[in-house]
Amino acid sequence: MGINSESDISANIQIGPTDQGMVRIYVEGDGIDLPLDFDPEEAAEIAEELLAAAEAARDLSAPKSGKGKPRR
User: Is residue 30 a part of any domain in this protein?
Assistant: First the structure.
């Protein structure tokens, strides 16, 4: 399964700090119980990648008229 493959699988995600100074991304769903721990620097890099992906997705779904809000 890749990024562009659709799925009927649903899951919950929680993100927060641990008491050990790590950032945990916790994924839970049918048959899935996946805690992923990252040091703060890695978590910041993941956050940057998420923001870049959100911007790219926003650009793909934006109207193609050439008018509208100027890009940042």
Answer: yes
